[in-house]
Specification:
290 residues, 2 domains, 6% strand, elongated
Length: 290
């Protein structure tokens, strides 16, 4: 019964604009200007037709614009009648234009600058652009290969993940909408970056969702908003067939990330890192990033 009532309402919502269109066509066939009763009737049906289209549109912006076009078309025809109802139509159209302007601004994505906590001591402007590390200034140098008979080189010399660091290619201005999500990400990021020495900061940020829904894009946008280098890693970067080697790679990865802090470390498909040994990570459909 409820479905039948809704279908009938939608059918009526389209019959009203059709009848209004017939009135509009007939008004052009009337010789001379419209009389006041004809103008009043056209005004009423113009408002009803616009309201019917808006009812059918719901929250869909293109159909809302179509309803406003219907209203403006009827008002333009009423203007040529040159009577009091013409002025009433113009007033209604002006009110509708004001509402459309407000609605359009409401649908725009929130400015990212307004999401930045004002009291946070760390700001994106204070962050330094990423530049490759100067080992000579630190008194460090990449370890040389071991000489014959001295055993294997340390893990830090065999594995290098510096090529994974990059300057982020975008920020939150490329992410439309999602104001609440961006605000929560920024608040969590500021809490991590601004954590005082000795205090226990937040462990990180976890993004959960199906593959392809934009977790990597959102993480890189967060790095761009903070103006910090972005480091993206997947399980394939440390996966190997040799026992114990993935642990060594993961250790070196975190050592190199800590040496270049602050930065944004993004571990894609984090559930693959933590998967049980009896479960193949590639068999999972839903992915989690950290």
């Amino acid at each position: 019964m409820r479905s039948l009532t809704k279908t009938s309402a939608y059918a009526l919502a389209w019959l009203v604009p059709i009848f209004w269109a017939c009135l509009m066509v007939g008004s052009f066939k009337v010789p001379g200007p419209l009389t006041e009763p004809e103008t009043l009737r056209l005004l009423i049906w113009t408002v009803l037709a616009a309201a019917s289209v808006k009812y059918y549109a719901g929250d869909r912006w293109p159909l809302t614009q179509a309803a406003f076009i219907v209203l403006c078309a009827g008002v333009v025809r009423l203007i040529f009648a040159f009577n009091v109802y013409s002025l009433a139509g113009v007033a209604i159209a002006l009110l509708a234009a004001g509402w459309m302007t407000f609605e359009h601004r409401r649908r725009l994505p929130a400015p990212v600058a307004a999401l930045t906590p004002a009291s946070a001591p760390f700001t994106p402007a204070a962050a330094q652009p990423y530049s490759p590390p100067n080992y000579a200034a630190r008194g460090q140098a990449p370890s040389a290969p071991p000489a014959a008979g001295q055993g294997p080189a340390p893990a830090s010399a065999r594995y290098d993940f510096t090529h994974k660091f990059k300057a982020p290619g975008h920020n939150f201005s490329r992410v439309l909408g999602m104001a609440e999500t961006k605000e929560r990400l920024l608040n969590a990021a500021f809490e991590i970056v601004n954590s005082e020495d000795g205090a226990k900061p937040r462990n990180g940020i976890m993004l959960d969702g199906d593959p392809g829904n934009g977790k990597t894009f959102l993480a890189e946008a967060l790095a761009g908003e903070l103006q910090l280098p972005f480091f993206g890693a997947t399980y394939n970067d440390i996966a190997t067939m040799y026992v114990g080697e993935p642990i060594e790679k993961l250790t070196v990865l975190f050592q190199q990330v800590v040496a270049r802090a602050p930065c944004v470390l993004f571990l894609d498909e984090f559930d693959s890192f933590m998967a049980a040994r009896a479960v193949r990570p590639t068999a999972r459909r839903r992915t989690t990033s950290w």
